[in-house]
């Protein structure tokens, strides 16, 4: 076989690889749309779930997912960004506890989400915190799940700000916090925002830890922060499990809503990243 | 570095100058405290995970011998009397991961080589966001897809799969892993310095040879790290296997059969109203601890491997 044929075969093989990814993506989106679009109706957004598929909606689940996203924005983003600032601007690398902290975050990033669910079951729902199977418990656990995914890109964004900017501030007599809060943070906002939005979008679709926190329940009323809840992905799982094909159709409709939320957030993050791509 | 037998040159004594602020700034200290507290959340999380798994798991192992848990092949903890052999769960986890990696390793690596060595910047800018979409799809959606699209397709192709089966779940799990493996492998390949490629081209190599005999070997530890992280992800993934692979704890190597992975057991059992302190309740933690230990080992291996390839060229 000539060199050229070999080269072409290799390119062909790589194109097959790309085709598998993109073909599957198109197939997944296609089947979901075909199955679910006819079932998208006002009822899906206004009615609670029901044992009769014709009367079932996902209003409590959709609302709870929005509440969860807002709570995550208030908890995961500040804690994550502050941790990133600590690690990049304040922590002295030679100290053992800072190295442990860094390794710890790397490991947390790869702990399976369901293990966080076990933590929630033992400590947040029952045990020391003991708030019960409520929305706040879900928000706390999802915060912990996505914290590393906020911290890691935020650190990268902060690290990308050149030292000359910091030194400029110090030379003018600014204190450390003044330099960090008025020079470094504003300059790294696009990177931090991109990472945070991606983390939130991941949390919105997260299902497994919520199962253990008790989100798998019948909730017929609008959720409250300290009340029982079910979230949109959990609602989808509930419907997928039911044998009646009418519920599969409802699941597909709910998946379209979930994908719309998640993919919009992703598109926005990618847009932010491209729009404010900074080179120093 | 060469050592010289000369005594250190006489350096003029430097007078220590105190550069610390003349007055203590309480505001700055306060900021540092807040930042430290935020960083502490991660540490508390880890400690919390370990304690929450370990304490109930120890109680579990006081009643059921670890030997039985790790070697017995009968898993029926919710029966009376229960049997607690975790072998079927661990086996199922690795069988599903095997099928997933069978898809994700070659496809992810091929994608990475294409992105790193062949694609123009413009093509990359189109392809990468599509991969990111693949990575953004919630796993419950992949589970639905495996159950309602892939399994029927396998059946129509003449593969006699059960409704819940290892094959559909494993293959879809593999697709989910492609972006992870592709992007980590690509990072490793991009870190290979240009000189190595130019040297090979200068010797008359073509692009295929440069890619497969220079870049891939040079980036191999990063590529293996991406595979290890991929397996770790597959081991920890819950929703796809819970929905599509089923909840039948059995020892089988037939991918057309349903099985129950560790995560599927935790997900299916943990949502019930099991009374705190019952042996069934503690089972969740024993299985969770096993899962945590397996993924922790893989993550440590993967982090080590990534560090190694980073150190070589810096």
The CATH architecture name of chain A reads Orthogonal Bundle
Distance between the termini of chain B: 17 Å
Tally of DSSP helical segments of chain B: 12
Q: Approximately what portion of the residues of chain A adopt beta-strand conformation?
A: under 5%
Number of spatially distinct domains of chain B = 1
Q: Mean pLDDT of chain B, rounded to whole units?
A: 88
- The CATH superfamily of chain A bears the name MetI-like
Strand pairing plus helix content of chain A: what structural class? mainly alpha
Distance N terminus to C terminus of chain A? 48 Å
Strands of the biggest beta sheet of chain B: in what spatial order? 1-2
- Return the average pLDDT of chain A rounded to an integer: 90
Specify Rg of chain A, calculated over alpha carbons.
Answer: 23 Å
- Number of spatially distinct domains of chain A: 1
Instruction: Report strand % of chain B.
Output: under 5%
Low-confidence regions of chain B: none
What is the C-level CATH assignment of chain B?
Mainly Alpha
What's the CATH H-level homologous superfamily of chain B? MetI-like
Quickly give the CATH architecture of chain B.
Orthogonal Bundle
Using DSSP, what is the number of strands of chain A?
Answer: 0
Any descriptors?
heterodimer; A: 280 residues; mainly alpha; 11 helices; 75% helix; B: 314 residues; flat
């Amino acid at each position: 076989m000539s060199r050229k044929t070999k080269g072409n075969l290799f390119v062909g093989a790589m194109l097959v690889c790309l085709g598998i990814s993109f073909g599957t993506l198109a197939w997944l989106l296609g089947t979901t749309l075909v199955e679910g679009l006819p079932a998208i109706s006002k009822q899906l957004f206004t009615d609670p779930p029901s044992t009769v598929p014709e009367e079932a909606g996902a209003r409590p689940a959709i609302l709870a997912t929005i509440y969860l996203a807002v709570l995550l924005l208030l908890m995961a983003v500040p804690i994550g960004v502050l941790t990133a600032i600590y690690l990049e601007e304040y922590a002295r690398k030679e100290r053992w506890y800072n190295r442990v902290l860094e390794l710890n975050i790397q490991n947390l990033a790869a702990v399976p989400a369901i293990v966080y669910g076990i933590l929630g079951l033992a400590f947040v729902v029952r045990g020391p915190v003991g708030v019960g199977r409520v929305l706040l418990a879900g928000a706390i656990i999802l915060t912990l799940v996505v914290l590393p995914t906020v911290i890691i890109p935020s650190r990268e964004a902060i690290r990308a700000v050149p030292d000359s900017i910091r030194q400029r501030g110090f030379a003018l007599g600014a204190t450390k916090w003044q330099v960090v809060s008025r020079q470094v943070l504003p300059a790294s906002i696009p990177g931090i925002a991109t990472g945070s939005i991606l983390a939130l979008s991941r949390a919105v679709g997260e299902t497994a830890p919520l199962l253990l926190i008790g989100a798998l329940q019948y909730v017929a009323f609008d959720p409250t922060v300290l009340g029982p809840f079910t979230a949109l992905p959990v609602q989808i799982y509930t419907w997928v499990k039911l044998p009646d094909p009418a519920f599969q159709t409802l699941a597909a409709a709910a998946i379209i809503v979930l994908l719309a939320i998640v993919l919009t957030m992703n598109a926005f993050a990618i847009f932010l990243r491209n729009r404010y791509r900074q080179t120093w | 570095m060469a050592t010289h037998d000369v005594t250190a040159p006489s350096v003029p004594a430097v007078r220590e100058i105190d550069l610390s602020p003349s007055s203590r700034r309480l505001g700055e200290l306060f900021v540092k405290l807040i930042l430290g507290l935020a960083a502490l959340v991660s540490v508390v999380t880890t400690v919390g995970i370990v304690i929450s798994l370990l304490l109930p798991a120890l109680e579990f192992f006081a009643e059921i011998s670890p030997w039985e848990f790790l070697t017995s092949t009968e898993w029926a903890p919710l029966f009376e009397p229960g049997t607690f052999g975790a072998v079927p769960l661990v086996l199922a986890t690795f069988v599903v991961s095997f099928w997933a990696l069978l898809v994700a390793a070659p496809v992810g690596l091929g994608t990475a080589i294409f992105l790193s060595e062949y694609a123009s910047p413009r093509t990359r800018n189109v392809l990468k966001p599509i991969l990111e979409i693949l990575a953004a799809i919630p796993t419950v959606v992949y589970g639905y897809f495996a159950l309602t699209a892939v399994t029927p397709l396998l059946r129509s192709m003449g593969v006699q799969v059960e409704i819940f089966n290892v094959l559909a779940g494993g293959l879809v799990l593999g697709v989910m892993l492609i972006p992870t493996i592709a992007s980590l492998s690509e990072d490793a390949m991009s870190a290979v310095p240009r000189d190595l490629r130019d040297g090979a081209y200068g010797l008359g190599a073509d692009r295929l040879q440069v890619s497969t005999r220079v870049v891939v070997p040079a980036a191999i530890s990063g590529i293996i790290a991406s595979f290890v992280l991929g397996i770790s992800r597959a081991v920890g993934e819950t929703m796809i296997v819970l929905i599509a692979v089923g909840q039948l704890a059995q020892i089988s190597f037939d991918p057309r059969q349903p099985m129950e992975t560790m995560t599927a057991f935790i997900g299916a059992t943990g949502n019930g109203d099991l009374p705190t302190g019952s042996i069934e309740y503690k089972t969740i933690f024993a299985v969770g601890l096993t899962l945590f230990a397996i993924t922790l080992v893989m993550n440590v291996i993967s982090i080590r491997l990534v560090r190694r390839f980073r150190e070589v060229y810096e």
